[in-house]
Amino acid sequence: MSDPDAFVPQFAFDVTAEPAHIDELGHVNHKVYVAWAEEAGVRHWRAIADADDQARWIWVASRLEVDFLRETLAGETLRVETRVGAPRGARFDRHVRIVGADGKPKAKVLYTWALIDAVTRRPARVPPALAAQFTQA
Questions:
Q1: Which residues pair with 94 in a beta bridge?
Q2: Which of 3, 35, 37, 69 is the most exposed place for a label (fewest CB within 10 A)?
Q3: Which residues on neighbouring strands pair with residue 91, listed in sequence order?
Q4: pLDDT (tens digit, 9 = 90+) per residue, 79-113?
Q5: 11-50 CB burial, b ≥16 within 10 A, e <16
Q6: Neighbouring C-beta atoms of residue 68, cutoff 10 Å
Q7: What is the mean pLDDT of residues 46-57?
Q8: What's the pTM value of the predicted model, to 2 decimals?
C-alpha cells in the first residue's frame, strides 16, 4: 500500500466506534473498517458528483486489500480519510486511511473501483472530466 507520510486526503469524515461495532475480542470488528472504507468512497462520490453524473454512473468495488494496524475500542472517534489514484481505463484505486485521535493509523485500505454505465451496466472508461472532479474536491 501507499506510504502513509505521503497520504494527502481529498475527502474525510469522522466516525465513532459504537457498541454494535465491537466483536468478541472487545474491539471494532474488521468488517466495520471495511464498511467505513466503502462509506468513504460513497460519501466522496456524492460530495463531488452532480445529480446527472450520479444518475449516469455507478461505482462498484472490484478488489479490496486491508491492513489492520491497531485496535479500536468502543467510544473512540476516528477520522476516515480517502483519496483516489489515477484512472486506468474503467478503474482507479481508492486509498483509505482510518486514523485514531492520536494520529496513528488504525487501518489502511486499498479499494479498486470500476466505473459502470448505469444504463448498459457495462464498464466505461473514466472520462477525464469525471476524474478531475475527484482531485478538485
A1: 84, 111
A2: 3
A3: 88, 114
A4: 999 999 989 999 999 999 999 999 999 999 999 99
A5: bbeebebeeebbeeeebbbeebbbebbbebbeebbeebbe
A6: 16
A7: 95
A8: 0.90
Per-residue pLDDT reduced to its tens digit, 12-50: 999 999 999 999 999 999 999 999 999 999 999 999 999
- Burial class from Cβ neighbours inside 10 Å (0-12, 13-18, 19+) for residue 90 reads middle
Q: Running DSSP on this structure, what letter comes out for residue 19?
A: G
The mean per-residue pLDDT over the stretch 62-79 comes to 96
Cell of 93: 484505486
User: Which pLDDT does position 33 carry in this prediction?
Assistant: 96
Residue 126 in grid coordinates: 473514466
The C-alpha cell that represents 130 in the structure block = 469525471
DSSP string, 92-132: EEEEEEEE-TTS-EEEEEEEEEEEEETTT--B----HHHHH
